[in-house]
């Protein structure tokens, strides 16, 4: 009787531990996929698909970046001000950059379903060519050219600023990961 009770307990324990392990680690090929929007520092948006585990890692990374973003922004502003006479004109464009961000759209059981949804969203967001446009006047052409030049300048400034902030952000993250041994200059 005692042996059968021990065998029963051993079997029950192995079943419980097997279920617990199965809940922690998904079986190969059964991982879920996440469709999400990723916003970069220049406020550009891209839609991507990743496995859930990679998405969670990306969320954690972006969360760490968000905690250090204001400090990196102030370091980039100091650098901008220091180099203002040589390179840049005007004040530091703080409002042109933002911390990277994620927005989860949906979770799918297979990558194919996620890809289908992404394709459907991209198709829906395409501009339609149903209505023919009339020929623009000279004033409208000049206005459009001026607007395009201004947009190109803004985009260039945003990319430059985002690159500066990203450099300082990487330094801060490396310093934080290294236990604070290497700290960037701060006055």
Overview of this protein structure:
Helix 2 (52-82) packs across helix 4 (138-177). This protein has helices at 2-24, 52-82, 111-125, 138-177; strands at 33-39, 45-51, 101-108. It has a 3-stranded antiparallel beta sheet. It is flat and about 95 Å long. The protein is mostly helical and 187 residues long. It has one domain. The chain is 58% helix and 12% strand.
Taken as a percent bin, the fraction of beta residues is 5-15%
Q: Terminal Cα separation, in Å?
A: 77 Å
Q: Count the E strands.
A: 3
Mean pLDDT: 81
The low-confidence parts are 20-25
Q: Which strands sit side by side, in order, in the main sheet?
A: 2-1-3
The largest sheet, given as strand count, sense and whether it forms a barrel, is: 3 strands, antiparallel
Order of helices and strands: HEEHEHH
Globally, the shape reads flat
- Rg (C-alpha, Å): 26 Å
Structural class: mainly alpha
Residue share in helices?
55-70%
* Tally of DSSP helical segments: 4
Number of structural domains = 1
């Amino acid at each position: 009787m005692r042996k059968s009770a021990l065998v029963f307990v051993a079997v029950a324990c192995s079943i419980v531990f097997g279920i617990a392990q199965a809940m922690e680690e998904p079986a190969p090929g059964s991982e879920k996929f996440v469709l999400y929007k990723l916003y970069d520092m220049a406020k550009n948006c891209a839609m991507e698909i990743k496995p859930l585990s990679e998405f969670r890692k990306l969320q954690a990374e972006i969360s760490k970046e968000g905690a250090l973003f204001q400090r990196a922004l102030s370091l980039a502003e100091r650098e901008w001000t220091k180099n203002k006479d040589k390179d840049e004109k005007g004040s530091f464009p703080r409002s042109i950059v933002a911390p990277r961000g994620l927005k989860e759209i949906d979770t799918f059981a297979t990558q194919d379903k996620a890809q289908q949804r992404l394709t459907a969203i991209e198709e829906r967001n395409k501009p339609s060519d149903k209505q023919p446009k009339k020929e623009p006047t000279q004033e409208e052409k000049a206005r459009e050219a001026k607007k395009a030049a201004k947009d190109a300048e803004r985009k260039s400034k945003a990319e430059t600023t985002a690159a500066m902030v990203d450099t300082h952000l990487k330094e801060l993250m490396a310093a934080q990961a290294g236990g604070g041994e290497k700290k960037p200059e701060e006055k």
